[in-house]
Amino acid sequence: MEKEKVEVKKNLKKLGDKVLKDIESGSNPSLDVPVRTLSNVKFDEQVKMLTMGEATAKRYFFNIAHVRKFVQTIEAAALAKELIDVNKHLSLREAFYRMKRTLPNSNINLVDEQIESNEAIEDLELISDSSREQLHINANKMGSVAGKIVIEDKGDIVDWSKLGSGGWSIPSNVEDIIFKKVNVKFIIYMEKAAEWERLHEDKVWDKLDCIIVSSQGQATRGIRRLLQRLSTEHKLPIYVLTDFDPWGFYIYSVLKFGSISLAHISSELAIPEARFLGLTADDIVKYDLKKHLIKFKDVDTKRLEQLIKYDWFKNSKEWQRQFKLMKDMKAKAELAALSSKGITFISEKYLPEKIKNKDFID
Amino acid sequence: MTDQRLTAVEMGEKIKEISIAEFFEKNRHLLGYENSSKALLTVVKEGVENSLDACEEAGILPEIHVSLKEVAPDRFKIVIEDNGPGIVESHVPYAFAKFLVGSKFHRLRQSRGIQGIGIHGAVLYSQLTTGKPVKVTSATGKEIHEFELMIDVTKNEPKIISHKSFRNPEKKHGIKIEMESEGKYIERQQSISEYLKETAIANPFAHIIFDGPNGKLEFKRTVDELPKQPKEIKPHPYGVELGILRRMLSNTKAKNIIRFLMSEFSRVGKSSAVQICRLAKVDPNRKPKDLTHEEVDNLHKAMQMVKIIAPPLDCLSPLTENLIMEGLKKEIAAEFYVAITRPPTVYRGYPFQVSVGLAYGGSIPESETAKLFRFANKVPLLYHQAGCAITEAVIETDWKRYGLSQSSGNLPVGPIAILVHFASVWVPFTSEGKQAIANYPEIVKEIKLALQDAGRKLGSFVNQRRRSRESQLRKELFEKYIPELAESLEKLTEKQKQKIIEELERIIKKGGLVGKGESGSQEKS
Q1: Which is more confident, A62 or B514?
Q2: A158 reaches B (C-beta below 8 A)
């Protein structure tokens, strides 16, 4: 642990020294920032995940278009160094407020929106070759888990099956968690907290011997890392439940292959063994959900067109079939629509049936 | 009905000669006296222009003192005094109190006044509105003569009310005219002070003091040399009107037509004269006075058809580029000045020459319509801007090319003052008020060429100014971020913040990096 800290501090210092050298030699201070867009992301067929290309962009201080981001990045580095020195952590939101300052004699703030500080921190991760967690900056806790697993976290023993109606909330840094007892067969990850509550109330984790995990929308890094560890360390299959829409499909895509903006750390986050459980286009037919379809808006159509073209979906017959069916329907559907079939329909019928029949998409 | 009819005899009795003075009395608007504020301006204008012309012809740097005081409601006492050569005693009454007596009408020479109407109009206006005579004091370096004059309106003859003479031990010279007239004094646009300011711009070699109702204004002399003297030329056959030709034929001393053509016109040699006669089917040996109406008509037509080289062009005294620059600089505080004088050219047989000047930025308002200064023979034109060839040329010029905004059919908008000067032996005014130049295509074209030439120079200045402003803005932006960067770097590297700031400031001062066209470029791999 201490060794890792020294390494991160060294990287941050190196970054500062590089800029200083530029300044002292009278040249335009610059940073090499790896490009975090689709153009610089490749799908590695071998390991089945997104990897980042070699493209970097020069970011200059003396450039009207760059100066703001340049200073934000250096400020993020200074902040991380300070946090490591005093051994404290900040949330992304808190980091935003630490960086939000007004430039002297002006009405310009160094950052105006949290997205700016978030991006500066993400850039810094790449430049300093350190993860956000290593930089002592955490994302907000956004997910819950319940099931028959016992862990140790900072000296506390926690049994995920004995935490009442709320379950255990997943921290953003799960590196130091130790799995004490793992008594489950698989994991169900779902997009929405509402479905998690349904499954928790119905004690699905007890009945099916699994753990249930949720987040709000996209899974946080902490959740993804936790799921990956369970997948690799305990060989647990992971089933993903999302709405039937392009955004839901992409949540699955990120879990399985990694995300475009974090392609550089796919190996620590992606879970190639994840499977898509539903909702599928076939579910819509089979469970008679057609009357609950919601018509596509332009943004939905556009997003679907993008999905169709992604390298990691391009050669999947099954996924292209799902996309085509969705495209033909020009509509989407929510997981919650299953409740039209009965209050506990999802817990007692839908999930057991699908898992038993291995009715999922790779 | 029948008793209202007149017999031919009765009608004949009613026909009588109308004197020009009487005509003026009834048509004062033609000479610029239609309303009381314009009338007051016209009185001052006529006096000042006479003074400037007199000084220039005599080779004297003008000193002109104008005083205007309200002596009763809407009644002013006007005094205009110059240091010109003065007028000899015997000519004074005619020079001021008889219409169409001028030294300038029967010649072609560039000057401010031409027709011999101007100052007489002012005298008559004073007489009509106050009933008082005008007082003229003339000093020619010998004795000083003081006249009180009125105009006998029906006879168009001067009436001398009094005449005194004094000794002149100081050998002073010049004219002082004192009169009272009705009027209304205004400031700002189309005012006497605006007229004098524009006069000062076009005549920076003149020193003018205005002692007005709202205090004193002084327009200093910034050029100590008079412009080149214009030369008198004979009319060119292409520019002569039929009526003038007729008068010339009856006044000439030439014994026959061929002599007449060769001696009274410029650029007409023997072969051109013979050709004109042949084309007009007029015997070249006829006496000029003997030609019939029809023959004069034919002669006039033939004169337009024969190929004759253009009149001499060195007769003009244009507003030189130096004079324009000096004039603009002393009255308008701007960032950039440019002046262009075109080579002289010809319209309808009359030589003319266009000069333009532009003043940009500085104290000129950013987002108002351009201020247009129009001049003809160094006289500002304040009225009838819309109907003037100068205005038309300015509107037809594409100012957007030169960094100004302009909607079609309008003057440009921006921090600019546009000066256009038209010099000619005969300015084609659209009316006797002498406020607008007729838009002959040759004239509009010349003005546009001059404006475009000056505009190109302006354009490169405007571009340069925009670039340097942008680079200044860039510099200021970087300067704001420098302390932040230095502070973060200090935390990262433990190098002193102040040292980092100094080093970054040094890079800015060096300028190379900051000025580079990096702005707006995307991050490139």
Answers
A1: A62
A2: no
